[in-house]
Design goal:
Oligomer: single chain
Largest sheet: none
Number of strands: 0
Order of helices and strands: HHHHHHHHHHHHH
Strand content: under 5%
Length: 392
């Protein structure tokens, strides 16, 4: 039976595979669009589809795979598996199908199917966290709720022809994923680095931790207000983002990233986290009118989100299939390609806007190559049982 296949044993298996594959297919469609070839006529048009699906298709799948796997470790209780897990995968797939090929259906139907996914993920997490009384992990539930709100706002923007609502809702989603990266990165990057390099983990500075997380939360709250129609001064947004950028840069500097240069699974995490302060600093400048916010958004989505997710998927997929945690051939190249894509698509493009065509093309190609390398190495292991014979 399908429910007994190894791929249905824990959420990271199907969702990491599907997210990587979906991101490559989506980027190929996007590349074709930039060259004048329309491969899809999706719900909301290709511009909307690209924004929405990289956030609520690709990123949401990775977030679901990670959280529904990690919550088992956090709570000691069995997470979603078998038939219920495959049903959740089916909800995600149905959303992607209806968004890509709406088949003339009324707009509310793709919206409802697409909106169902994240609340289901949150429901599973809430049940396990509450049952185990692991209250510190409840922080992920409001983030998932706000992601659902941002998703709803994007759909309503399409239905009402409100391009500004679509844009601001997408910005909120980007910043919410950034907040998740700040939380998860703070939990694991310093620990992974210390364990791998055989050194003591630096003791967190409570005030710095509070400032890094609190300032990022403030940025999210400000963007939520903007999405809801509240007009905020550009100087205020710039100040909040600048503070969050500085706090997270100082936080990252304490984790020993410079000593990790021999370990791609480590420097990939450090490099991806570095794009959080880079992206926030660029967004602060954009709020002051220096350049377009879209450049800062791509620093966060490619350099932060895309690279951190690739590094985390590469590591988690080894550990949870009982394989040695080591960098497989080409994964370092893949992570390097993602960081190069982010540099081209954000800081380089901000400095040299005349090379827009080249940066778009190279960024898309680098992303596709990076995630194809992941699929080459990890597709078979994710379909196979754990090497130690245990469940999971």
């Amino acid at each position: 039976m399908l429910t007994r296949l190894p791929v249905a044993r824990l959420a990271f298996r199907p969702f990491f595979l599907l997210a990587a594959l979906f991101s490559v297919v989506s980027m190929v469609v996007w590349l074709a669009f930039w060259h004048g070839d329309i491969l899809l006529r999706p719900h909301g048009g290709l511009m909307f589809w690209h924004q929405h699906e990289m956030l609520f298709g690709f990123a949401a799948a990775v977030v679901a795979g990670f959280l529904l796997t990690a919550v088992q470790n956090w709570t000691g209780l069995p997470s979603l598996r078998g038939g219920p897990l495959l049903a959740l995968v089916g909800v995600w797939l149905a959303g992607r199908l209806l968004m890509a090929v709406p088949m003339g259906l009324p707009a509310w139907l793709p919206m409802l199917v697409d909106l169902a996914f994240l609340p289901l993920v949150a429901g599973v997490m809430a049940r396990l966290v509450i049952a185990a009384r692991r209250w510190r992990n409840l922080i992920f539930l409001p983030a998932l709720a706000l992601l659902t709100l941002a998703n709803l706002a994007m759909h309503l923007g399409v239905m009402n022809g409100d391009a500004e609502l679509i844009r601001q809702a997408a910005y909120l989603a980007v910043l919410l994923v950034t907040l998740l990266m700040v939380v998860v990165g703070g939990r694991v990057i310093a620990m992974f680095t210390a364990n791998r390099l055989g050194r003591a983990k630096p003791a967190p500075i409570p005030a710095l931790e509070a400032l890094a997380l609190g300032s990022t939360l403030a940025v999210v709250a400000a963007q939520l207000l903007v999405m809801l129609g509240v007009s905020l001064p550009g100087a205020l947004l710039a100040a909040l983002m600048g503070l969050a950028a500085l706090a997270n840069a100082v936080r990252l500097g304490r984790w020993g990233g410079l000593a990790s240069w021999r370990e791609p699974l480590l420097w990939g995490l450090h490099g991806s986290y570095a794009f959080i302060p880079v992206g926030l600093a660029m967004w602060a400048l954009a709020a002051l009118g220096v350049f377009r916010a879209e450049l800062a958004v791509h620093a966060l989505t490619i350099g932060g989100m895309g690279t951190m997710m690739l590094a985390m998927m590469s590591r988690v997929s080894l550990g949870h299939t009982a394989r040695p945690i080591r960098t497989l051939p080409g994964i370092g190249v893949a992570l390097g390609l993602m960081l190069a894509a982010a540099l081209l698509r954000a800081p380089v493009l901000a400095l040299f806007p005349q090379i827009t065509h080249w940066t778009y093309n190279l960024g898309i190609l680098f992303w596709c190559l990076a995630y194809l390398i992941f699929l080459f190495h990890y597709t078979v292991p994710l379909f196979m049982p754990r090497l130690d014979g245990k469940d999971g």
